[in-house]
Each structure stands twice: as C-alpha cells, then as structure tokens.
Write a structure and sequence with these properties.
Elements (H helix, E strand, L loop, with lengths): L15 H7 L5 H16 L6 E9 L3 E8 L4 E7 L5 H20 L7 E5 L10 E5 L4 E2 L7 H4 L5 H19 L2 E2 L4 E5 L2 E5 L11 H11 L6 H4 L5 H21 L10 E4 L8 E3 L5 E4 L6 E2 L16 H4 L7 H23 L5 H7 L1 H15 L5 H6 L13
Antiparallel strand pairs: 1-2, 2-3, 3-5, 4-5, 6-11, 7-10, 8-9, 10-13, 11-12
C-alpha cells in the first residue's frame, strides 16, 4: 500500500462535545464497525481497526469526520445532519451516482465513494457515505479563511485558480445526456431519472421549466419581505416574486431554448466545495448533492464570478468597482473557456452560454429565487422579451 500523504493542518472544528450533543441520533460506534467491515471486504486489509478524528467540519446539510485506520489509511465519513427521510435518501443516492459518472466520464478530480448507507441497515441512524479522504482544505477555508480574504481568491493565485475553474466547467459541460434529470446508475450504466422535488426526466428545457414552475416556492413570506424592501417599492417587488414561477412557465412556451444533449450542472460550485493544496492546485471538487443534467440556460459561472443581475435590483442597483472588475474577470474567463474548447476540439456551447449576458442574468436570478433573494424578477425576464419566438404549447 502506498504511504499516505501527510495530513495538512485543516481549518476544522475540534469541539466534539458539541458535535456529540447536536447529533445524538448518530451511532458513531456503528459507523466505525461499518467502515471496518467495508474496508475488509474491499481490499482484505489485515488491520481494519479504525477510529474517528477529533476534527470535524460541518456545513448546512452535512458533517464530515475522518476515519483513521490502524495501518495509516484514511477515509472520510460524510453524514447528513438529520435523520433520514425519503427525500434526503434520494439526494444521497443521486449524489453517489453523479460522482461515479463524473469520475467515469470526465477528468474532474472527484473523491472515490467506497460505500454508502441510508442509515438503517448499518444502524448508524443517519444517511452517509464513506469516501476517499483528500488531504487538503477548501479554497474558502485556506489562507486564513473567510475572516481574512472574505471568500476572494488571493491575487497571486487568482489567474491560476480561474484557469482551473474553467477547466472544471469545460469538463463538466462535456458530460451530457439526451434528457434532463438526475443521473442514476443502473446495472453499471448511467441513465437519467427524476429531479428530486420536480419530476421528470424531461425531453426538453421547456418541459423542465414548466414542471419547476408548478413546485417553486419562494422561501420567505410577505412579513419578511416588506421590512427588507423600501416601502415605495415593496408592492412591485412582492408582485414580481409571486409571479416569477408563472412567468417562467410562460417563458417556456416561447423562448428558443437550446436543444440537447444537456450538460451536467454543479449547482453549488463555490470555493467552499473545491479542495486545494498549499499552492492553490485543485485537488478535488466536492458536494455534488444538488447536481443534475439541466438546461443549457441554467449553466452559469462558478460562484466566485457570480454577479447579481442589475435588473434584479432595479432602481436600487449601484455600480461598484468590484462589479466592474467582476465583469472584466468574466470576459477573461469566457475567453479561457473558448480557448480550451478549441484546443480540445469541442463545440462552443459552454462559452456561448457564459458569454450571453441576458441568459446569464436569467440563470443567476433563477437560482437566487430558490435562495430567497429579494428583487425585481419580472425585470430580469424582460431582458429576454426580444427573443420571443411564438410556438404552439405542447400538450
């Protein structure tokens, strides 16, 4: 067995007492027994005894802890932060299958998943996966963390990191399927299944957006929105928020969406989900839970280059030095992507959709709606009006 790389100093928490209290429903001993059994079955290691690291990291939906084996091998346990539900179990299965597809069909570095369980058969009490431990920190946590660089890549590494992100997005866009939906691995073959909470699979983008419109809900009610909005604009903003799903449904009836095959979309491509080393080399891309094969019109820049569409802020929008710099960085990023497409003899669909400012405004507004961003969504959709192509609505 190869000697494992030294574990760097990670920006993880160490207050395991608090961890144990908040996740009392997790049976940690059962997790260790499951890990030992899995390791023995995979490679017949002589020493399968293991323990959990004192360090851990916690996000919005998961907690991760390292599993250290007696022979120096290290795995990562990633557990959901709540007892399993049918929806959370579906998300886990979808993530495992998506990661397998990415490893098989692209050059993107993704951790290998050794095993996963929905929390019942193992007795752990939470749905979890055991996967390869990548010895690095996230780009968000590295170099002093958020409180030092506020989530921005340090200037000396910016060009290098953006080139790596471009490579990731080119590779991701090359993983394509003829339908829209979640990736499902069946009998060793990758297929497309329903999108959790929406349905499908869908043959066209129009079908996807119509189905989304039926289930979409803005996270906040009027009692929360009004105090956060200037009084003279509150009624207009509320109307725009309430009408957005139906307006997207109407958009699906006339907008000339790109045909398939459709690309894989990582819906959470933040620097907090990209693991790097001390030289800012990308080691792995993680957190594929929400990833799905989606419409080209929902492909957007990685989150480091995201810009809130000016139309979404309407009369409240103010130009800043950072927004000007971000637009220049996006233009450079598009050129980098286009160059990679040409060198690899790929089509230019990705660079074309990233260069389309109106589609990018719609894409980012679409994702912001689910996050509860208050704004003038009708004005964003208005940017697309000039592309109106009337057609018969499919029954």
């Amino acid at each position: 067995m190869a000697t494992p790389r030294p574990t760097p100093q990670l920006h993880w928490k160490t207050d395991t007492a608090g961890l144990e209290n908040s996740l009392a429903f997790i049976h940690w001993d059962a997790l260790l027994q499951y890990a030992s059994k899995t390791r023995r079955e995979l490679d017949g290691a002589a020493d399968c005894s293991c323990r959990l690291s004192l360090e851990y990291n916690m996000g919005g939906l998961h907690v991760v802890r390292r599993v250290d084996f007696g022979d120096g091998c290290r795995w990562l346990a990633r557990l959901q932060l709540a007892p399993p539900t049918p929806e959370s179990c579906q998300r886990l299965r979808s993530e495992v299958d998506t990661m397998a597809a990415v490893r098989a069909r692209s050059r993107i570095a993704v951790p290998r998943v050794f095993a996963y369980d929905l929390g019942e058969a193992s007795g752990v009490g939470a749905a979890f996966m055991l996967m390869e431990f990548v010895p690095g920190d996230t780009a968000m946590d590295s170099f002093g963390g958020w409180h030092v660089h506020r989530g921005e890549t340090p200037a000396p590494f910016r060009a290098k990191f953006h080139a790596a992100l471009a490579d990731i997005q080119v590779e991701m866009a090359s993983v394509r399927f003829p339908k829209i939906g979640a990736i499902v691995c069946s009998g060793g073959q990758f297929e497309i299944g329903p999108v959790p909470g929406i349905g499908g699979p869908f043959d066209t983008s129009a079908q996807y957006f119509e189905a989304w419109a039926k289930t979409a809900r803005f996270p906040y009610r009027e009692a929360t929105i009004r105090p956060r909005t200037p009084a003279h604009l509150a009624d207009e903003v509320l109307a725009a928020i309430r009408s957005f799903p139906s307006a997207v449904r109407d958009l699906a009836r006339w907008f000339p969406f790109h045909d398939g095959p459709f690309p894989l979309i990582h819906t959470d491509l933040y620097s907090s989900n990209i693991i790097i080393d001390e030289h800012y080399n990308v080691l792995s891309v993680i957190d594929w839970e929400g990833a799905f094969v989606g419409p080209w019109e929902l492909v957007e820049f990685n989150k480091e280059l995201s810009i809130v569409p000016p139309a979404l802020d309407g009369p409240l929008y103010q130009e800043t030095e950072s927004s000007v710099a971000a637009r220049h960085a996006r233009a450079e990023f598009v050129n980098t992507v286009r160059g990679m497409e040409e060198r690899r003899q790929l089509d230019t669909r990705l660079s074309a959709v990233l260069a389309d400012e109106e589609v990018q405004a719609f894409s980012h507004a679409f994702w912001l709606y689910g996050e509860g961003r208050i704004g003038f969504y009708d004005r964003v959709l208005g940017l697309l009006d000039r592309r109106r192509v009337p057609r018969a609505h499919p029954e």
